[in-house]
Amino acid sequence: MTHSFATSLDALGGWRAALGERVDTLAKFLGEHDLAHGAAGEQLDSLRERLGNEKLVVAFVAEFSRGKSELINAIFFADTGRRILPATPGRTTMCPVELGWRGDEPASLMLLPIETRLEGLALGELRAQPRAWRRLELDVDDAEQLARSLQEVTRTEWVTEEQARALGFWDDAHPDDNPPRDDAGKVEVPAWRHALINYPHPLLRQGLVVLDTPGLNAIGAEPELTLSLLPSAHATVFILGADTGVTKSDLAIWRDHLGAHAPTRFVVLNKIDTLEDPLATVAQVEAQIVQQQKETARTLGIPMQRVFPLSARAALAARVGGDAMALNESRLPILESALGAQLLPQRRQVLEQVVQESAQQIESHVVRSIGDSRRQLAEQLLELRGLRGKNSAKVRLMLKRVDAETSEFEECTTLLQAMRAVHGRMLKDMLTDLSSDRVRDEVAEMQASMGASILNLGAKKAFLALCERLRALLSAAQRRNGEIREMLGASFGRLNAEFGFSLALGKPLDFDRFPSELQLIEGNYVQYLGLTLALRLAQPKFMEQFRRMLISKLRVVFENASSELELWNKAVSAQVDSQLRERRKAFKRRRETLEKIQAAAGELELRLDEIEAQDQRLVQFQERTSELAESLREYAFAAPFATDAEFDKLDLPLFDDAVPLSGNEEEMQRQA
Predict the structure, then answer these.
(1) Which of 20, 25, 42, 64 is most exposed, with minimal Cβ within 10 Å?
(2) pLDDT of res. 652
């Protein structure tokens, strides 16, 4: 039995779904007992969203005719008994294709016309504009209709050289890389800029996103691929031909677009079946494959264990035909096991940390709230027990004392109003520097600096200056949030000491990931801001597209930082309202109790019993909350592959060079 990547992902999806059920159980319990308010409720909502929307992006990159689409079909869609993606000799997929599943939409193929490049809009902006896309409904039960519809991603258009230049497919500085002309002098370009396939495959339902990226020409023509989509993928599979090895264009893709994050890259030598020779022995063919494997590893500068020779065509045929022996001979299971062994545990570890921290914070909020309620009940019990055997004069005296304490407590509103005014002003000043308007202003300053240099040759310098200014803004926001924390800490200390609150600041916000994300963007862009791109930036349309894409990328970082800061401040200040509300309720209950006792002395013991029973219920609520939170934490650290004992016995290559995943790793944390 082969533990494939699909099987591993299925196990991870089941583990994540079980975690979601435990979160729902905890949320239901807290909601039924009015404990899911304030910061605890926000943490629950955030954790639910993170577990429900977790995505795993695997990008497949190759030049044309390397068998990339066939490999995707073999790994993910062989159980359908057919090819989902077109995979025929010659050029097939002509535009970047994303396969995923959005449950709120029907199965469909969304196609973005190539002409949208002329508008200068980034892909991120166009995703939110349904009218810009052509939509084709997919009948997943009709194989012929599905195949015909997906053939659309292979469609091309013939345009003039001038149009090809405007679309980004013709570069006068690199004539050797330009596509050939036909007899009429026209150039073949893709009909579509991007394609989104919404397909209800079980793996896609679990959050897998497959990015199918065509050759060097398409990658270089779409800046968002090189600066956003590929760097943010959690793993990239780079496909080469076993018969050709690393060609010049293959090396250009690796060097310019993939090599910077080599530890998260898997290299495939596809089509090993083409090396079979009736005049050579099996050992000779095997030696040739090993030699190609070594040569590829040496050329790309990676360990040999990261190069996987296989035959995608043979693997697909074997899986469709149910031939286990032929599947093993195709060597695809070795790649799948490597993907499952490295990539999925890393994704699980990210979620483990998210669940651990969220469960701890939810439990802390609830325990603090219950503790405050129990403290108020204890004060009330102490007061009522002191009334045993007392006359009505004593009760009237107690009523006056409750009224006096209530009035004294309400004096805290002056301090609260002052604290909220200062907090609101400090928060507003902090968030202003993280706003989208500020990002646009900073990018506009960079653009003006670029325009001031001859042919935009100062592009890299201007961009680095922009990043330095943005880092300063993030540092200033972090410093200001520290000042807010100090102010709130002083105010909370006074409220706790003078008015009996039990306010706590909790864990400081982890802000370090946002400068790290900015650093990642900087590294990706600097890699391409050489002389060639500087010359292209002199073209107004290309500059506008570059500007929009950069703003879109930076906004994600700054909006996430702003949201995190706002959420932290909201959670900290929300406990003030919660405790204020509960304290007022407690004073009201004390007065009502004394009034009832004054009216009927026999109710004293009854009321004492009620309060003691209420305290016991709170103890039970706290214990149950801790049990549910601990169950959530324990299951988060349970291995999702534990049911498959054979997985531990797999003879897999060791990845000693493994590092944390590249891309927006922390965005997941942010979405939590």
Answers:
(1) 25
(2) 43
Q: How far is CA 52 from the centre of its chain?
A: 11
Q: What is the pLDDT of residues 40-79, one digit of tens each?
A: 788 888 888 878 777 888 889 888 778 888 888 888 777 7
Cβ(97)–Cβ(153) under 8 Å?
yes
DSSP β-bridge partners for residue 61: 213, 238
* Tally: H helices and E strands in the chain: 24, 11
β-strand pairing of 187-190 with 156-159: antiparallel
What b/e readout covers 138-170, taking b as 16+ CB neighbours within 10 angstroms? Answer: beeeeeeebeebbebbbebbebeeebbbbbbbb
Residue 134 to residues 188, 192, 201, 549, Cα–Cα distance (Å): 21, 10, 22, 22
Of 664, 614, 517, 639, the C-alpha closest to 18 is 639
Rounded Cα gap, residues 213 and 219, in angstroms:
7
List, for residues 261-281, the tens digit of each pLDDT value: 555 789 999 999 888 878 788
Q: Kindly report the average pLDDT of the chain as a whole number.
A: 80
518's tokens:
């900015």
pTM of the model: 0.66
Cβ neighbors of 479 (< 8 A, separation 6 or more) are none
For the chain, state the CA radius of gyration: 31
Q: For residues 423 and 487, what is the distance between their CA atoms, to the nearest angstrom?
A: 8
| Residue 472 reports pLDDT greater than 80 | yes
Residue 113: beta bridge partners? 192
First vs last C-alpha separation in the chain: 36
Neighbours of 17 (CB within 10 A): 12
3-state SS assignment for residue 658: coil
pLDDT of residue 668: 33
Phi, psi of 58, deg, nearest 5: -120, 120
Average pLDDT over residues 348-376: 84
**Across residues 653-669, what is the average pLDDT?**
35
Report which of 263, 286, 260, 254 is spatially closest to residue 273, judged by C-alpha positions: 286
3-state SS, residue 251: helix
Distance CA 298, CA 287 (A): 16
Q: What does residue 106 show for φ and ψ, rounded to 5 degrees? A: -75, 165
Percent of the chain with pLDDT over 90: 10
- Which comes out higher in pLDDT, residue 116 or 175? 116
What distance in Å separates the CA atoms of residue 282 and residue 324, rounded to the nearest whole number?
20
